[in-house]
Design a protein that fits this description.
Layout: H1 2-11, E1 18-21, E2 31-39, E3 42-49, H2 74-79, E4 92-93, E5 97-102, E6 108-113, H3 124-144, H4 156-161, H5 174-177, H6 180-185, H7 190-199, H8 201-210, E7 213-216, E8 225-227, E9 233-235, E10 242-245, H9 248-259, H10 268-285, H11 292-301, H12 309-316, H13 333-361
Parallel strand pairs: 4-9
Antiparallel strand pairs: 1-2, 2-3, 3-6, 5-6, 7-10, 8-9
Length: 363
């Protein structure tokens, strides 16, 4: 049993192992498993990376392209370089790698420091502080330069947003839009706004790729955040890390906090305002003195990342009780559609703000 052998290599002779599966994206073929492993007073999180494709949705097939967002070896490479320390001094840290094992089937087992629970109980204040620390980290790499490796992801926003197979015609299906769940929770103008966001995706990709760059985590959301006892915030799951626009990560934090129900849609206006302000404060503290409007454009142009989400919500509206991230719990349908459609309404607003600011800048 590889797990037992790996545990003995790390801790010496061990008694019975207690293994608990942790919440993760089970659709992604790269992540074969994520488990908490305990024995006696020892504990670690074991994440197994692989390249299997059986039964994997097309958007989550592992890639052999080192620049692709789903390059299957990337997270193992992160822990073998200085990249995990790229945010050092900001109050954001990566978990410590305890051991790395290549298994007989070719998969890679990362034995990581057990950081405890994720950010499921985080408040708006907590997430605003995380955004500030992110600004410090990314401001420093923007000013001083960050690690440069051939396996860092490139053009993430474009490639990720374009990978989702959806039926775009649903955006024009008035019968779907009239469904009670949609009609009850859709902000005014959502149908036209999401259609336009989808149709103008190439414009948003182009704008984002022209903005000031930094080393982005590219999956910055509450499920990947946890607190250490010393007050630092540990940032997990570095599998997408690579080149991105200033503001791109904080844009993801804001909407994903609501899309997956860590906060409710009622918290969204406050989080939007405060998280962006905190991120800008962090950039300034790190010595970045560029034009704040370009950062806001980075946040707002990131709206295109979820160009595919409204068609998915329309397609699933009659498919029964929704499930939470990881597929382990159900979600009240009204909560799902209130949060998701409210978040999409904000993205439509962001898209409008991006168009207006783009004109003001004269790009």
């Amino acid at each position: 049993m590889p797990l037992a052998d790996e545990a003995r290599a790390l801790w010496g002779e061990v008694d019975r192992l207690e293994v608990t599966s942790l919440t993760h994206n089970r659709a992604n073929g790269v992540t074969q498993s994520v488990d908490r492993v305990r024995t006696g007073g020892q504990s670690a999180v074991v994440k197994v990376l692989g390249r299997g494709t059986d039964g994997v949705p097309p958007q989550w097939i592992p890639s052999e392209d080192p620049t692709h967002f789903n390059f299957w070896r990337r997270e193992a490479l992160v822990y073998g370089t200085e990249l995990g320390d790229a945010y050092a001094g900001s109050g954001l840290v990566a978990p410590q790698l305890l051991a790395l094992h290549e298994r007989p089937d070719g998969s890679l087992a990362l034995w990581l420091e057990d950081l405890g629970a994720d950010g499921a109980d985080w408040t708006v204040d907590d997430l605003v502080e995380a955004a500030r620390r992110l600004g410090v980290a990314q401001g420093r790499t923007a000013v001083e330069g960050g690690p440069d490796h051939p396996w860092l992801s490139q053009r993430f926003l474009r490639r990720y947003a374009s990978s989702r197979p959806v039926d775009v015609t649903l955006l024009d299906d008035d019968q779907r839009w009239a469904h009670p769940l949609i009609a009850r929770h859709a902000p005014e103008g959502l149908q036209a706004g999401t259609r336009r966001l989808h149709d103008e995706a190439e414009w948003f990709f182009d704008v984002s790729e022209r903005l000031p760059r930094t080393v982005c985590h590219l999956d910055f959301w509450p499920n990947n955040l946890t607190r250490r006892a010393d007050g630092t915030v540990a940032l997990m799951d570095w599998s997408f890390v690579g080149d991105g626009a200033l503001g791109e990560d904080v844009g993801n934090l804001i909407v994903d906090s609501v899309f997956d129900h860590f906060l409710s849609v009622e918290n969204l206006p406050e989080l939007d305002e405060r998280a962006v302000a905190a991120y800008l404060e962090g950039l300034s503290d790190a010595g970045w003195n560029g034009d704040d409007r370009l950062v806001r454009l980075g946040v707002w142009s990131s709206a295109v990342k979820y160009r595919w989400l409204m068609p998915i919500q329309l397609a699933q509206v009659d498919q029964g009780t929704p499930v939470a991230y990881g597929g382990e719990h159900s979600v009240d349908p009204d909560r799902r559609y209130a949060d998701r459609l409210g978040g999409l309404g904000l993205l439509v607003e962001w898209a409008d703000r991006a168009r207006g600011l783009h004109r003001t800048l004269g790009w």
